[in-house]
Amino acid sequence: MTKPLIIGVSGASGLIYAVRTLKYLLEAEYTIELVASRAAAMVWQAEDNINMPAEPDLQEDFWREQAGVGNAGKLTCHRWGNVGANIASGSFRTLGMLIIPCSMSTVAKIAAGLSSDLLERAADVQIKESRRLVVVPRETPFSLIHLRNLTALAETGVKVVPAIPAWYHHPKTVEDLVDFVVARALDQLDIDCIPLERWEGF
């Protein structure tokens, strides 16, 4: 049985990145453990006037509806404050964790070893267990503090994949640009489930 993958959704702008990630992973029948931060719910409301429910069961239906995936794959959602969840323990085996999008506040707390909620605790577990952790920061410009925090994460082995799309795959829609970033983030976890025109040279 394939180990689950943890998806963290922080309060950064660009929740479409999380939605597209879930769409492809669930369609590919991956098992997903998802935790969205408290700030993520605030961003949903601010950017799209959408209320993300707090109850895990309702949240599962919410994410499936946003991603348009029906009952594909397996999705378990966790309350942001439930630090007693399975993903808060190193004894719970995973494929790793992807935080998409990742706010600079989340980057800073993980870099400092702080675990004020389940998302941060789950990330800290991946680092201490030497498992894969990928962050997709969505911020511009980066301040020196941001860069130092990202450097601290990179020095521990965390993969940093900024939300910077490319154009060589001839994108036609916003979703094409988003999917490029999602695919490159999942590449860091050796997951290839997104139809992407990859660079083959001139």
Helix/strand structural class:
alpha/beta
Please bin the fraction of helical residues. Answer: 25-40%
Tell me the strand order in the biggest sheet: 3-2-1-4-5-6
Main sheet overview? 6 strands, parallel
Radius of gyration over alpha carbons?
16 Å
Return the CATH topology: Rossmann fold
Mean pLDDT: 94
Distance between the termini: 41 Å
Q: CATH top level?
A: Alpha Beta
Give the overall shape, derived from the CA principal axes. globular
- How many structural domains? 1
Number of helices: 7
**At CATH's second level, what is the architecture?**
3-Layer(aba) Sandwich
Question: What's the number of extended β-strand segments?
Answer: 6
Low-confidence stretches: none
Q: What do these coordinates show?
A:
With 202 residues, this protein is α/β, with parallel strands linked by helices. The protein has a single domain, classed as Flavin prenyltransferase-like (Rossmann fold). 40% of the residues lie in helices and 15% in strands. The chain contains seven helices and six strands; from the N terminus they run βαβααββααβαβα. It has helices spanning 16-27, 38-48, 56-67, 104-111, 118-128, 144-155, 174-187, and strands spanning 5-9, 31-36, 74-78, 96-102, 133-137, 159-160. A six-stranded parallel beta sheet has the order 3-2-1-4-5-6, with helices on both faces. Strand 1, helix 1 and strand 2 (31-36) form a beta-alpha-beta unit. Helix 1 (16-27) packs across helix 3 (56-67), helix 1 (16-27) crosses helix 7 (174-187) and helix 4 packs across helix 6 (144-155).
Search tags:
202 residues, Rossmann fold, 6 strands
